[in-house]
Design a protein that fits this description.
By secondary structure, the protein is an alpha+beta fold. It is built from 5 helices and 7 strands, in the order βαααβββαβαββ.
């Protein structure tokens, strides 16, 4: 049984571990492992993750199994009244394709009210991510080049219209 709930500051180290494992699995086909380690250490500091968890304007949800282990997570913010932006959505490799990502996405939608559009960015080389978001009803709106640690990546901007937000 999978439950989706708000992340807690006490879970930061486990969240950091989930991010580390999923980043290696997701990005190692097009980013060197040393670059992945550098990025995750810079972007996923315990202090930064704790600040996001404590920020009431941010949806930071975790998916847990029946034993309380974190299997995935999602973060989202609301840059405008009409838009919710998905910042992260990761599920541990051994638990993907089981509906957890969809539940995390639903938690982000439920957290906010009265908006019309979900937006996100995903690397074009991230085939699993691209497939997931397309299956969830997102559509590509544009592409751009982004440099990460000296490596040029093609980033796909996607969005999904929300018929009726909670």
């Amino acid at each position: 049984m999978i439950t989706i709930q708000p992340a807690e500051v006490e879970e930061v180290q486990e969240i950091k571990q989930v991010l580390s494992e999923t980043w290696i699995d997701t990005y190692n086909s097009f980013l060197p492992v040393d670059v992945i380690h550098k990025i995750t250490s810079l972007w996923h500091t315990p202090e930064g993750l704790a600040a996001e968890i404590e920020d009431e304007r941010v949806c930071f949800s975790v998916a847990k199994d029946e034993h309380g282990a974190i299997l995935g997570l999602a973060t989202a913010g609301r840059p405008t009244d009409e838009v919710v932006y998905i910042g992260r959505l990761y599920v541990l490799p051994g638990h993907q394709r089981q509906g957890i990502g969809g539940k995390l996405l639903d938690a982000c939608v439920s957290f906010f009210s009265g908006f019309q559009t979900l937006r996100l960015e995903v690397e074009a080389q991230n085939e699993k991510g691209m497939d997931f978001y397309l299956k969830q009803g997102f559509r590509e709106t544009s592409r751009k080049e982004q440099e990460v640690e000296g490596i040029s990546l093609e980033v796909v901007e996607m969005e999904k219209k929300i018929e009726e937000s909670c």
